[in-house]
Write a structure and sequence with these properties.
Length: 149
């Protein structure tokens, strides 16, 4: 079973500004209500430490592997339960420069595994709104940084 959650936002800030916020892991707790903690190296293949807090859900910690870190276009990691194939999630952020001062954010996750069918309702109820809220928070931060620069 597979499930995809994909959200988008247009951010009135340069792609480099948005990228710098997405990769400044230490600052996530200051602005991000969904990914409340993240640490690790931005080297492909490295392991990250991530804490998420879905709206209406409980905090979860996991250690995904960084698959893609291609500045300033894509950040992607793969997380899973201790046994791969039960419930895996490939989280992604893709950035596209629409103009010199405007960026499209595509933020989502591709879920797979035998437990996805059981979790589908929770993903729609908790994860999708959390992604959308994070997008709004990222937009607000990037636009405020760009306006003050």
């Amino acid at each position: 079973m597979k499930k995809n959650i994909c959200t988008e936002a247009v951010i009135n800030a340069p792609i480099e500004t948005v990228w710098s916020i997405l990769t400044d892991f230490a600052a996530f707790p200051q602005w991000n209500s969904f990914i409340t903690g993240i640490s690790g190296s931005l080297a492909e293949g490295s392991c990250l430490n991530v804490c998420i807090q879905p709206a209406g859900g409980r905090a979860m910690r996991f250690k995904p592997r960084l698959l893609v870190c291609q500045a300033p276009q894509e950040l992607r990691w793969l997380g899973s339960l201790p046994l791969r194939g039960l419930f895996d999630g490939e989280h992604f952020f893709r950035l596209e420069a629409l103009s010199e001062h405007t960026t499209r954010l595509v933020h989502g996750e591709d879920f797979s595994g035998i437990l996805v069918r059981l979790m589908a309702g929770s993903l729609d109820k908790h994860t999708l709104p959390a992604f959308e809220k994070m997008n709004r928070e990222l937009k607000q931060r990037a636009e405020s940084f760009f306006q003050t620069a």
